[in-house]
Write a structure and sequence with these properties.
Blueprint: E1 5-8, E2 11-14, H1 17-34, E3 41-48, E4 53-59, H2 68-81, E5 85-90, E6 97-101, E7 107-112, E8 118-123
Antiparallel strand pairs: 1-2, 3-4, 4-8, 5-6, 6-7, 7-8
Amino acid sequence: MDNFTSSDRGKRVELNMQGAADRADSILDAVLREIKPEVQWAHGSTSTGSCDVSRMRVVMTVVSRERRGSFLGVVDRFLRKSGYRVKAVNRDTDVPAIYAQTNDGFGVSLSIGGEGQAFFEVDSPCVKESEVAESATPPNGPAYEGIYPLPRPNVRSGFWSAGAP
């Protein structure tokens, strides 16, 4: 199977798993920066397969049922503006989700789980095997190091947690 390659200022570069993890982090950083008002998040799991990497960020801010459509809308607009292909949208009011793919083959998803907890995940295409370090991006709230599973969302937002649309 061919290894994934990416363009870096016109020069083709072959990515390894660490490079793919870094690319996943940059995608996650960018999408979370778009959400206003800001939500608090923590790192979820990093997983590696035989030739792929997956990074997750877990939103610790409660996203109310009434605000979930708006939350997905912000993310949907960012993904489309960034040139990502939106592959599917689940418009369920309780557990909505959006699935997209970057031009360079990374899968990007947002799903809302129990109690309004949002999960962002980025999966890489097949890349060269290598070690993968933890993300260098610090969370914008508690790190929850050594705690698994992460707690349910426990941060209230005047906007995202509000009961009125």
